[in-house]
Amino acid sequence: MKKIVTTSKAPAPIGPYNQAILNGNTLYTSGQIAINPETGELVMDDIKTEAEMVMQNLKAILDEVGMTFENVIKTTIFLNDMNNFAQVNEVYGSYFNEDTAPARETVAVAALPKFVNVEISVIAVK
Q: What is the similarity comment for this entry (predicted)?
């Protein structure tokens, strides 16, 4: 059964979508960008700070349904510039155990919402 997942600890959607959907034991998050959920402002001081905010937003959604990054089975990373890959990967990697890390793809795109540099979505299973 499809359940809408919402938390004030992650940014509110900026369009006709939800933060995440829980279907049975599987969580599908919408792509998260570096919006500070408390202020609604973008956090774009540098690419590492931006990636950290994205991961914290994902963590808030996982927390809302009693999951952690250990439950994540698949991630998708969108970058507007592959030159940022190493720095984003460093931040991203700090959230996962390398031995149990999820499957992942990283793709370069022409532009992202609000012209951010990185967007990440996850699929997690209890």
A: Belongs to the RutC family.
Q: DSSP secondary-structure letter at 7? A: -
Top CATH class, 2-125 = alpha beta
Tens-binned pLDDT, residue by residue, of the chain (126 aa): 899 999 999 999 989 999 999 999 999 999 999 999 999 999 999 999 999 999 999 999 999 999 999 999 999 999 999 999 999 999 999 999 999 999 999 999 999 999 999 999 999 999
pTM across the whole model: 0.97
Locate the domains of the chain by residue range: 2-125
